[in-house]
Amino acid sequence: MRIDIITVLPELLESPFNASILKRAIEKDLVEVHFHNLRDYTDNSYKQVDDYQYGGGAGMVLMIEPIDKCISSLQKERIYDEVIYMTPDGHTLNQRMANSLSLKENIIILCGHYKGVDQRVRDKFVTKEISIGDYVLSGGELGAAVLCDAVIRLIPGVLNDETSALTDTFQDNLLAPPVYTRPAEYKEMKVPDVLLTGNFAKIEKWREEQALARTQELRPDLLE
Ligand code: ADE
C-alpha cells in the first residue's frame, strides 16, 4: 500500500511514522508513506498557499492551484483508489472504514487547514471526506496520523500476531473482552478462575459473554 499525504505542516506528521508499529510496517515495505509539502507546489515567491475567502468572513482558505498541481502530479504517476480529505464535517471514522481502506493500493490524504480548502477541491478531486470525531482540530494532520495508524495496523503482516487485529474492539461490532497477565493474584485482586483452567472452549465462551456484556453496558448503540 502507498499513502501520499498532502500537508502544509509535514513536520507535525513525521513522528508517528518513526516509532513502533508504523515504523516497522514501513521498514518491512508493507506500506510506503510520502509527505508532500503544499508550499512546494506554489509559484509565488512567498510560497503562499492560502487566501481570504470570497464574500468575507474570518479565516483563510487553502487555494485550489497548489492542491491541483500536487494531486495532478501524483495522479500522473499512478492510479489512486481514494483521495481523502480530512475535515471535521466528513464521515466519522470507524473500524469498518479502516478495514476497507486497508485493502486499497494507493491513497492520497489531503489535510485541511485554517477554514479548510476551496470547495472546488472537494468537488473535483476528493472522493471521501473523513472526520476523526465531533471536535475541531487546528488542521487535518493529527487526524491523518490517526487514520493511518488505524489503517496500517490492519495490513496483513504488520502486526506480529495477525489474529490480534481480528479480536480488536469494534471488530464484529463488539467491545473487546477484558485481558489479564501475571501475577494471577495481586493485592487480593484475582484473575478470573476460568482463564486459568486451560479449557479453551470455556475460555472462548467466557470471552464472548464478557464482550457482549461490556458492549451492552458501555456501547449499546453498537448492537442496534
Ligand atoms: N480537521 C479539523 N478537525 C478535524 C477532525 N475532527 N477530523 C479530521 N480532520 C479535522
UniProtKB/TrEMBL annotation:
One of its GO terms (cellular component) is cytosol. It holds the Pfam family tRNA_m1G_MT. Its main location: cytoplasm. GO terms for biological process: tRNA N1-guanine methylation. Its EC number is 2.1.1.228. It is found in: Cytoplasm. Residues 1-223 form the tRNA methyltransferase TRMD/TRM10-type domain. It is an enzyme of class 2 (transferase). Keywords: Cytoplasm, Methyltransferase, S-adenosyl-L-methionine, Transferase, tRNA processing. It comes from the Bacteria. One of its GO terms (molecular function) is tRNA (guanine(37)-N1)-methyltransferase activity. S-adenosyl-L-methionine binds at residues 112, 132-137. It catalyses: guanosine(37) in tRNA + S-adenosyl-L-methionine = N(1)-methylguanosine(37) in tRNA + S-adenosyl-L-homocysteine + H(+). PANTHER family: TRNA (GUANINE-N(1)-)-METHYLTRANSFERASE. Homodimer. Specifically methylates guanosine-37 in various tRNAs. This is tRNA (guanine-N(1)-)-methyltransferase. The lineage of its organism: Bacteria, Pseudomonadati, Bacteroidota, Flavobacteriia, Flavobacteriales.
